[in-house]
Amino acid sequence: MPDGDEVFGVTEAEPDGTGEPWRLPDLSPDPTGLAFLLPLGGGVHRLTFGGPEQQGVDRDAPVTADEVRTALARCPGPPRALRAIRWASRFTDASRQAERYADGRVLLAGDAAHIHAPAGGQGLNLGMQDAFNLGWKLAAVARGRAPAELLATYHTERHPVGARVLANTRAQMALTLPDPDAMAVRDLLADLLTTPEANRHIAAMIAGTDIRYPMPGAPDHPLLGARAPGVQLPSGRAALLAADPTSAAAATVAEGWGDRVDRLGSLGPAVNGDEALLVRPDGHICWAGRNDDADSLRSALARWFGPISWHRPEYASLTR
After folding, report:
1. CA distance 222 to 232
2. Order of strands, edge to edge, in the sheet holding 34-41?
3. Distance CA 183, CA 176 (A)
4. What is the tens place of the pLDDT at every residue in 226-283?
5. What values do phi and psi take at 300, rounded to 5?
6. Contact 295, 250 (CB under 8 A)
7. Where does residue 179 rank: exposed (0-12), middle (13-18), buried (19+ CB within 10 A)?
8. Is residue 130 a contact partner of residue 113, using CB atoms and an 8 Å limit?
9. pLDDT tens, 144-156?
10. What residues are paired with 37 via a beta bridge?
11. What angle do CA 192, 198, 229 make, to 5 degrees?
12. Cα dihedral across residues 190, 194, 197, 202: positive or negative
């Protein structure tokens, strides 16, 4: 389905139709095209479709009611009649990515940085992740609490993630083509996904929960760079998770980063009695080590959250 349409509209079942519970759409290759409905409540549905009649149509051409009715007739389930079109747009399987997400004072995020086919609904998550990654860094630099070099990590971390999404959406779209070779690959992949390990791997990739950023200079740890599992940051700031609130790691934060980093107790199985985790505002772990590894933690704090608090009188002598 290289080219297709997406419509938000109101439909109704035929008078004698009782309707069916929504089910996952069948995306098996079909030379006549694909069409599926997602109920949004109140008679409003999201209709996504594509077929031979959509190929080559100008992107700016309006989506017609006849196109929508033809697609509705292809949808599985009880027949439905079109009442109104609230919004409609055409899309293609075009994949584009900016070479640089950061260039001087220009920073790109979301659709400005990357576009791809709407396979798996990954675009919204990808754009939000861009914003979370960039937002806290931009705020820190703008407030003078971190060096401008921190913004360079935005491109370094997010560009590979965007490239991977473009690759997997292109693969997904290729698997919907009614081509014998594509169908053979599709059958093979479907068989592989019956194994729990492969299923979890692909699911985490599409959901974006397996992202692990490089954290140069930090001690190696199984969780380093990953999202902190099961952790919510109450203030939206960075946090040190330490089971022992009197540890050297906790004291290091209190020495001069307490205005930027919260100290929290252990929030689940991620932290045991002799470990601590430093979690960035975007939820990713930028340092992990022992409670007594204060020197390594200081380096990580300075790298990600700027120097020790120079504006607090009690620490003025440390910054002269």
Report:
1. 20
2. 34-41, 44-50, 3-13, 80-92
3. 8
4. 998 878 887 889 999 887 778 888 889 888 898 889 988 765 555 666 788 999 999 9
5. -65, -40
6. no
7. middle
8. yes
9. 888 889 999 999 9
10. 47
11. 165
12. positive
pTM: 0.80
Residue 145 tokens, joined? 């609490």
Structure tokens at 309: 């608090």
- Of 240, 169, 234, 241, which is closest to residue 208 (Cα–Cα)? 169
Whether the CB-CB separation of 287 and 277 falls below 8 Å is answered with: yes
Q: How far is CA 141 from CA 78, 106, 306, in A?
A: 56, 14, 9
Q: Which residue has the tokens 């996504």?
A: 48
Range list of H helices, 143-275 = 152-174, 180-192, 196-207, 248-256
How distant, in Å, are the alpha carbons of 134, 157, 303 from that of 142? 12, 20, 16
Q: Say how far apart CA 297 and CA 280 lie, in whole Å.
A: 13
Please state, in angstroms and rounded to a whole number, the distance separating the CA atoms of residues 52 and 33: 7
The pair of structure tokens assigned to 207 is 């959901």
